[in-house]
Amino acid sequence: MRNVFLVCFCLLFALPAAALEIAGVPVPESIKTDNGVALSLNGAGIRSKFVFDIYIAQLYLEHPAAEAKEVIATDGHKRMVMHFLYDKVEKEKLTDGWNEGFSGNNSPEQLKGLQERIDQFNAMFIDAKKGEVIILEYAPTSGTKVNIAGVEKGMIPGKDFNDAMLSIWLGEKPVSKDLKAKLLGSAK
């Protein structure tokens, strides 16, 4: 009887761990880009504002890192996924948030060089509804692909744009310090 117990106990710990889930949404530990590059979950958490949960943010990297500067500096593939939890976030609120994040984490000189691409980025957005997903995926050879609710909206060229965009979550003035810590948490 003791041997049966030991075997069951060992099997319990030999089974694979359950996949991560946040607010009922499965968060895969790893994914592949369209061209087959493997990305690992660097971290994930909920973006809240006041008492409302707005979206689940998931950061996937080709080269996971625990430091924001390292995440931004690396030139590997990167993907930010936002799974919306709130009933509806209007386009104006999204673009206001992007603009606040861009201006809070980049110098006036950087913003001047990025402004045309920031305007292009903002023009791609629509109202985000509960259950919809926004994917912002960077590939070193092409730039940042924007996919909203399963529709590819376009590509923003340049690593400098992706660096500035990631600073919205990982910069000195992130949208949320708690979310920043969670996005950097899995790489430890």
CATH topology group: Chalcone isomerase
Helix fraction?
Answer: 25-40%
The helix/strand order is: HEEEEEHEEHHEEEEHH
Secondary-structure content class: alpha+beta
Radius of gyration: 18 Å
The first-to-last residue Cα distance is 41 Å
C-alpha geometry: globular
The CATH class is Alpha Beta
Total DSSP E strands:
11
Strand content: 25-35%
Question: Can you tell me the residue ranges where pLDDT is under 50 for at least 5 consecutive residues?
Answer: 1-18
Specify the number of helices: 6
Main sheet: strand order: 3-4-5-6-9-10-11
CATH architectural group = 3-Layer(bba) Sandwich
Question: Biggest β-sheet, characterized?
Answer: 7 strands, antiparallel
How many domains make up the coordinates?
1
Mean pLDDT across every amino acid position: 90
Features:
188 residues; alpha+beta; Chalcone isomerase; seven-stranded antiparallel sheet; two-stranded antiparallel ribbon; globular; disordered N terminus
Structural account:
The protein is α+β, with helices and mostly antiparallel strands and 188 residues long. The chain has one domain (16-187): Chalcone isomerase (3-Layer(bba) Sandwich), CATH 3.50.70.10. Helices cover 37% and strands 32% of the residues. It is built from 6 helices and 11 strands. The strands form 3 sheets. It has a 7-stranded antiparallel sheet with strand order 3-4-5-6-9-10-11. A two-stranded antiparallel ribbon has the order 1-2. Strands 7-8 form a two-stranded antiparallel sheet. β3 (30-32) and β4 (38-49) form a beta hairpin. α3 (91-105) packs antiparallel against α4 (108-123) and α3 crosses α5 (159-170). The termini are far apart.
